[in-house]
């Protein structure tokens, strides 16, 4: 019985937590979210910017959709990152927040998620592959240690919840 209760609680948390996180996120004006995303990308990809490795993004818009957080935007690069509401992307990446957290923390491979249909890439697949490879090249050591620790703990907690939610009670 305790295992069954833990499994049900874990399943419920996996559904409820993103909904709770989405509520305040929806209330933040898009311009504020865009500014944060632009600054984050400028910082995380500063090495690629300095090495002129982002030419492939010029003139192209890449959409990101995180359905469980009700967050969607497009990003492009022309000397700096620009974020806008989704209108005409060349390629769209869609996933839930948990899967994106696992990728960001280095606990899950985006190719695995793609083949499990937990990460969708629609549109210009060549551009999508370039974007995916660029994001995989981000060195997690660029993050402050407190952010790395938080990402790691959140990812480990998520993995534990996922594993616990599928635990089956063994017959006696």
UniProtKB/TrEMBL annotation:
Pathway: Cofactor biosynthesis; ubiquinone biosynthesis. SUPFAM superfamilies: SCP-like. Keywords: Ubiquinone biosynthesis. Pfam families: SCP2 (PF02036). Coiled coil: none annotated. The keyword Repressor does not apply. Gene3D superfamilies: SCP2 sterol-binding domain. Residues 37-135 form the SCP2 domain. InterPro entries: SCP2_sterol-bd_dom (IPR003033), SCP2_sterol-bd_dom_sf (IPR036527), UbiT (IPR016830). HAMAP family: UbiT (MF_02231). Belongs to the UbiT family. Required for O(2)-independent ubiquinone (coenzyme Q) biosynthesis. Likely functions as an accessory factor. This is Ubiquinone biosynthesis accessory factor UbiT.
